[in-house]
Structure formats: structure tokens, C-alpha cells
Amino acid sequence: MFCEEGVPVDTMPTKVYIRTFGCQMNKRDSEILAGALRRRGAELVDDWEDADVVLFNTCAVRKHAEDRVFSILGLLAKSARSRGQRKVFGLLGCMAEEWKGDAFKKAPYLDLVCGPNDLYTLVEHLEDIVSAKRRWAFVGGERRSDEFYSRGAYFTVPTGESTEPTFVIVMEGCDNFCSYCIVPYVRGRERSRPWRDVVEEVRMLVSAGRFSFMLLGQNVNSYAGGMDFPDLLDRVARIEGVRELSFATSHPKDAHRRLFEVMASHENIRPYLHLPMQSGSDRILRAMNRGYTYEEYLEKIATYRALVPNGYLSTDIIVGFPGETEEDFLKTRRALEEIRFDNAYIFKYSPRPFTKASSLKDDVPLKEKERRHQELLTLQKRLSAARRPSN
Ligand code: SAH
Ligand code: SF4
Ligand code: F3S
């Protein structure tokens, strides 16, 4: 169909709403997806009620967050149905890869399930998905098509304020298999983007007006796209127009002196390190398959603090891992007091499908997990306040 000026007019563009849960990687995936959908002629809307397609890009790392997603999606689907509106509801991201086809049983209102490595397939099938009266499942992708990267990431400038950091994915997936963690099962094996692609993307984003960047990976320290991570960080910090640079997340076993040296040697690299410790007890660290002892963790931090003066340090802690005794817990408590993190994210252990730990008895009672959680939150609040300069 053509309008008078001879410009092709498609049928009305499909209106898509995307809501994102989980980590920065998911946030960037949603931006890339939005960009790719726009180039396909879709219109992205801010209110789900205006949308033909309602997509939830989700996180599977803890059960609590997962229950929330199903409950919100269920409410939206019910509300649309009660008004006779026909919308496509899609579960995307890590929960989609976890549930696969079973998601349709768990949430019968779903029309679409799409794992994090199959987002480009979704883009290619958007029109079919909207017009067909059938269900779609794109899951089980081990790695993302290069197309998603090149046609997506390269040309996707985030719509948010330019003062916020722009996320740039440098590697994806995880081969660490910490015994509690579902990420390696839903994101697949580690793969790195070639360093030239990363540099090209940052240059493109600089020319589009962005100046603050965060390099992303499930474990950036295992980056292997033609150079190691410290070299990549150094390379990106040298790009003209990059005024602020940070990265997430680092695994302690692969964060070395050279990384801290690079951080210290560039004015534009933020002195910010997120280094998940998980526990202060060697017994629990071993059971978690973390690959370091508490002493080794302490040494890393001492090196970081010596090389990066006024460095900011944050961490993740899990309480109530199977078999965690009061003594183990007290070791974690003492570790927080000893290290004095600027911030700590504290989580209650949640058994996840596919993981090694899920075959262990979840033997710390919920009440006890809650007590340990609360105790560390209170402690960390006091420690964080003491570390913040008062002026
Ligand atoms: N790739 C990152 C973090 C992934 S998940 C890293 O390795 O650092 C973010 C945090 O969620 C983890 O650091 C851990 O503290 C927490 N987490 C992961 N699995 C969990 C589980 N099953 N129960 C509770 N917390 C969990
Ligand atoms: Fe999960 Fe461990 Fe990989 Fe982090 S390093 S994503 S905690 S398996
Ligand atoms: Fe969650 Fe997936 Fe990120 S499980 S933490 S959204 S990689």
C-alpha cells in the first residue's frame, strides 16, 4: 500500500512495551532489542496499556524475583482479557531460558517465550508473532547470532539521559558454575566480542553524544576477545570523548594487580570495584565453588586499596547457603567488619534449578536466613555510613 507521496505506508506499526528486571546486562539487552524492533518498524511505548505486544525481560537468579514477574504478568494479562483486549504477552530473558516450554503451563496467558540468546529471532518474527494465533518458544540458544550484535548493539543509542552510563557488552555467559548460581545455565558459555567491535561501538556512541560508559560481562575478567580485560579497559579509556568509564562484574579469582594498575593510571576510569565475596567462611566458599579462600580475597583487596587510593569497594553476600552454621555466618559478619566495604548487597540463599547446590538440603530455616540477612543489613548500613565522608 502506498500513500499519495508514494511513501510506503505499512499497516499501523506494532506497538511494543518492554519492562526489564535483573542486571545491567538485561538492561542493555532490552535497549538493543528496542533498537532492533524500531528498525523493523515497531513503535516502543511507555505504557503497557497502549501496547499490542507486552514483553517482560526477566531475571532468574532468585526465586522471589521470579514469583513477582509471574504475578505482575498474570495481573496484566487478566486485566487485558477482562476488557476484551487482544495483546501478545512475552516472557524474555533468563526466566524464559530457565522455564522453556513449561512457562506456557505455569502461565497459560503467555504467547511467547524467548531466551536471552534468541532475541534476534524474536525481532525477525515479530510480524508473524503478532498475526499468528499460536505460541512461540525461542529457547536453547547457546550463543547469540552475530547479527544481533552487529545490527543491534552497534546502532543502538540508549534513550535515557546522557549523564547515565551507557552499557557496552564485552563478554557474555559464565563458565564458573558457582554451585548456587543459575546464570551459566541460562546465559550459556563464556564468549567475548572482538576488541575492535567494542572500540567501534564506543566510538559510535561517543559520536552520538554519550560520554559515560560501563563495560559489561557476567565476569569481565575472563574477557578474551583478542586481548585480556586490563588491556581492553586501557584501550577503551584512551578513546577520545570517553569521560567516565567503569565495569561490572569482576570475579575475585581473576581480578589481578594489573587490573588495578590500569584503573589507577587513567583519570577517566572510576575508582569503583564491585567484587562479590559471597561468604567469609572458607568452608562455605569451597562448597560454593568460588575458587578462592577468605585470605586470598583479603590479599586482592589490600592490593586494590594500595594501588587505587580512595577506591570504592562493594560486594555481594549470600546468607543461609546449605550447611551454613552460626560459626560460618559469624565469619562473614567479621569479614564485613574487617574489610569495611563501601556497600554490600546481601541476599538470602534461594535454591535454583539445574544448580549443584539445589541437590543439597536447604537446611537453614527461613526465619534464620531472615535473621542473618537483617543482621548483616543493619551492620552494613552502619559501616557504609561511617565510610561516607560527612561533607
Ligand atoms: N556474575 C556476577 C553476579 C551474578 S548474580 C558475579 O559473579 O559476581 C548477582 C548476585 O546474586 C551474586 O553475586 C550472588 O550474591 C547472588 N546470587 C546468585 N545466585 C543466588 C542464589 N541462588 N541465591 C541467593 N543469591 C544468589
Ligand atoms: Fe553466577 Fe558465579 Fe558466574 Fe557469577 S561467577 S554468574 S555467581 S556462576
Ligand atoms: Fe539475572 Fe540473568 Fe542478569 S539471571 S542477574 S538477568 S544474567
Proportion of residues in extended strands: 15-25%
Overall geometric form: globular
Q: Could you estimate the helical fraction of the residues in percent?
A: 40-55%
Most strands sheet? 6 strands, parallel
- Specify the CATH architecture of the largest domain: Alpha-Beta Horseshoe
Unreliable residue runs: 1-9
Query: Within the CATH hierarchy, at the fold level, what is the topology of the largest domain?
Result: pyruvate-formate lyase- activating enzyme
Q: H/E series, N to C?
A: EHEEHEHHEHHEHEEHEHEHEHEHHEHEH
Q: Any ligands, ions or cofactors bound here, and which?
A: S-adenosyl-L-homocysteine, iron/sulfur cluster, FE3-S4 cluster
Number of strands: 14
- Widest sheet: strand order? 2-1-3-4-5-6
**Class per helix and strand makeup:** alpha/beta
What's the rounded overall pLDDT mean? 92
Total helical elements: 15
**Intertermini distance:** 64 Å
Task: Describe the protein.
The chain has about 400 residues and is an alpha/beta fold. The protein folds into 2 domains: about 1-140, Rossmann fold (3-Layer(aba) Sandwich), CATH 3.40.50.12160; about 145-385, pyruvate-formate lyase- activating enzyme. About 40% of the residues lie in helices and about 15% in strands. The chain has helices at about 25-40, 65-80, 95-100, 100-105, 120-125, 125-130, 145-150, 185, 195-205, 230-235, 255-265, 280-285, 295-305, 325-340, 365-385, and strands at about 15-20, 45, 55-60, 90-95, 110-115, 135-140, 165-170, 170, 190, 210-215, 245-250, 270-275, 310-320, 345-350. The strands form 4 sheets. Strands 2-1-3-4-5-6 form a 6-stranded parallel β-sheet, sandwiched between helices. Strands 7-10-11 form a 3-stranded parallel β-sheet, sandwiched between helices. Strand 13, helix 14 and strand 14 (about 345-350) form a beta-alpha-beta unit. The longest helix is centred in the C-terminal third of the chain and has 22 residues, at about 365-385. It is globular, with a radius of gyration of 22 Å. The termini are far apart. Mean pLDDT is about 90; it is low at about 1-10. The chain binds S-adenosyl-L-homocysteine, iron/sulfur cluster and FE3-S4 cluster (F3S). S-adenosyl-L-homocysteine (SAH) binds near residues 249, 251, 278, 347 and 350. S-adenosyl-L-homocysteine binds near residues 62, 218, 219, 251 and 347.
